[in-house]
Write a structure and sequence with these properties.
This protein is mainly beta. The protein folds into 2 domains: about 190 residues, Glutaredoxin; about 325 residues, TolB, C-terminal domain (Neuraminidase). It has 4 helices and 36 strands. Strands 3-6-5-4-7-8 form a 6-stranded mixed beta sheet. The protein has a 5-stranded antiparallel beta sheet with strand order 13-17-16-15-14, with no helix packed on it. Strands 18-22-21-20-19 form a 5-stranded antiparallel beta sheet, with no helix packed on it. A hairpin with a 5-residue loop joins β7 and β8.
């Protein structure tokens, strides 16, 4: 989401409370005892998750409360979550984090959609569903993500937007601990919450993000994203190998000991499977013969430089989400930078290719165009097609290094829905995957739980399969599919929120589920 520094402004508590003044604080402004501002409560909540029941500010008295205003689609919001996790672990007795989920997309308003996101992102704190933006309005939030801090006496003492706030948050928490220990107003008894993951079973796959097929080798590669591993099966689903021990981390080595963190898109070439290790901000290479994992791009830190030109192992990446190889070039959907990057596999170098790093939908030259969280790549051999998720669009990028970026369907960051048609009439909702076949782009229209076809020449979009099931006993065909691969007359679909791989016969449209044999959930010590 667009990031803005928040200076002191007058807030509006709720639309129903006519212009009651309430002052926004930024990181450089403190509240004196004479003009301390009480934090609003969680009025208007549409549901509570990751906790046994609703919470009020009075329930949190004595605690330092960090409020995270987020939406589950937003890459900047996703980047904040590791910082919050670090703070929760550092201050387990003094701190409580509350996620305030204020949705952008229509599908994000449901409790079930948020519950799935909590599981997918491994969130360990309560989340309130602010479906109608009432809590957002009460605090005066204007951007995703926004972080607020409420002191042990219920005063709002910090409010700022954007990712990368860890150091400031840490300093403020330490300051408040010192003050309120001296005042004896700090409650240091840990609070335990009923987490959603406690009720989850051991599914063989857990939120698989992408899928790829090697027809010649008769193999399917599955990014088993929230199990933090790559599952390799034959075309019938029988286990061949698993890369990654199943616990989040960063470690090269054998398939059995290597670690990933939310792996997503994959690309195969000459016996090597390249993997976008999204949360680690790395690209990993799996030698399928030796069964080893090595890092080939990324320096282990989230990158801030949007030019990123240099040796691939020295450049910081930013949430690489998908990969596509053409010859010795590997295109990278760099979701965190809102750009397309390119890696020279022979030289081992990487650089920005398209997009200036601003989050928007802007066509034009490669260097002046703009994307918004590109998350899926495919090609017809001449043009790179991009699922530009935050603009709910499909973009066309020349692969020659010359020419201009074009939008096939989509308008801007807030133009979305579920509508077939031609050109400007077409609406998608946070599409994450694309696959080109026989003149058409097949689109994983993720938040509509559909597969659609898109003619890149006529700009005609049609629903191919999916959507709401008929009848109260019917089961939807898909649940937020995130990745597509077409091979051998079949569409392989990473049906992310249903924890499965679906297979569609292109001739008959018959839909089946890949039956996994020998693939089990990782056997790890349960997290508290």
């Amino acid at each position: 989401m667009r990031l803005t520094r928040l200076w002191p402004v007058v807030l509006v508590i709720l639309p129903a409370i006519a212009l009651l003044p309430f002052f926004w604080l930024n990181t450089t402004q403190r509240v004196s005892a004479q003009r301390a501002v009480k934090a609003p409560d969680f009025d208007g909540a549409a549901g509570w998750l990751n906790t046994a029941g609703p919470l009020k500010m009075s329930d949190l008295k004595g605690k330092i409360v960090v409020l995270d205003f987020w939406t589950l689609c937003c890459i900047n919001c996703i980047h904040v979550l590791p910082d919050l996790d670090k703070l929760e672990k550092k201050y387990p007795n003094e701190l409580v984090v509350i996620g305030v989920h204020t949705p952008k997309f229509d599908s994000e308003k449901s409790n079930e959609s948020i519950r799935k996101a909590i599981l997918r992102y491994e969130i360990s704190h309560p989340v309130v569903n602010d479906a109608n933006r009432r809590i957002w309005a009460a605090f005066g939030s204007r951007a995703w993500p926004t972080i607020g801090i409420v002191d042990p006496e219920g005063n709002l003492v910090y409010m700022d937007s954007g990712e990368g706030q860890y150091a400031e948050l840490d300093r403020e928490i330490q300051r408040l601990i010192k003050i309120h220990k001296e005042k004896k107003t700090l409650n240091t008894r840990p609070m335990k919450f009923e987490l959603a993951r406690a009720s989850e079973g051991g599914s063989p796959l857990f939120f698989p993000g992408k899928v790829s097929v090697d027809l010649e080798g008769k193999r399917i590669f599955i990014a088993d994203s929230t199990h933090h591993r790559i599952v390799i099966t034959d075309l019938d689903g029988k286990k061949i190998a698993i890369a990654g021990m199943g616990e989040a981390g960063t470690k090269d080595g054998s398939f059995a000991t290597a670690q990933f963190n939310d792996p997503q898109g994959m690309a195969f070439k000459d016996g090597i499977l390249y993997v976008s290790d999204r949360k680690n901000h790395l690209i990993r290479a799996l030698d399928l013969k030796k069964e080893t994992v090595t890092t080939v791009a990324g320096n282990g830190e989230q990158g801030r430089d949007r030019d990123g030109d240099g040796p691939a192992l020295r450049v910081g990446l930013n949430s690489p989400w998908d990969l596509l190889i053409q010859g010795d070039r590997m295109f990278v959907a760099m979701a965190g930078h809102h750009q397309i990057w390119i890696m020279d596999l022979k030289k081992g170098t990487i650089a920005a290719y398209a997009g200036d790093g601003g989050e928007d939908l802007v066509d034009g030259t490669l260097s002046r165009s703009r994307f918004a969280q590109p998350s899926g790549l495919t090609t017809d051999g001449r043009t790179l097609y991009v699922a530009d998720s935050e603009t709910s669009s499909v973009r066309a990028v020349p692969m020659t290094g010359r020419g201009e970026v074009r939008t096939i369907v989509g308008e801007d960051l807030f133009y979305f829905g579920d509508q077939d048609g031609v050109g400007r009439a077409v609406k998608l909702q946070h599409a994450l995957g694309v696959a080109y076949h026989d003149g058409l782009i097949y689109v994983a229209d993720t938040y509509n739980s559909k597969i659609k076809t898109l003619d890149p020449i006529t700009k005609t979009a049609k629903t191919y399969l999916g959507g709401e099931a008929a009848g109260w006993l019917a089961t939807p065909l898909f649940n937020e599919p995130g990745g597509l691969c077409i091979a051998g007359g079949k569409i392989y679909i990473a049906d992310t929120n249903a924890h499965r791989i679906r297979i569609v016969d292109l001739k008959t449209k018959a839909v089946s589920t890949l039956k996994l044999t020998g693939v089990e959930a990782p056997k790890l010590t349960a997290k508290e």
